[in-house]
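Attaching the record inline, Q. Sequence:
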Amino acid sequence: MTYVVTESCIKCKYQDCVEVCPVDCFYVGANMLVIHPDECIDCGVCEPECPAEAIVPDTDGEAEKWLELNRDYSTKWPNITRKGDAPADADAFKDEAGKFDKYFSPDPGKG
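Structure, as predicted:
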């Protein structure tokens, strides 16, 4: 099992999860984070840290499609090992639905 980052992270990217991850398995895109599923040790410490509730176990009903996205982009985006600043408008997007189609960017962020 692994944890995955879901749509709720898009445009929020709070990064509290990065600070607690013992294996540095987060990767950063322009407007979201992903978890490398082969590096995640399934400890679960990241899940309660996310203010957007964007991190779920891969056994969650909605996780399957996000597992593939996490797997794919964790090989394309840079690794992030320190918490950075969330976007200034993150709270405005926290509860918005349908963010993937509106805002997802395949561009890498700064690791």
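Helices lie at 16-20, 63-73, 90-93, 99-103. The radius of gyration is 12 Å.

More tomorrow.
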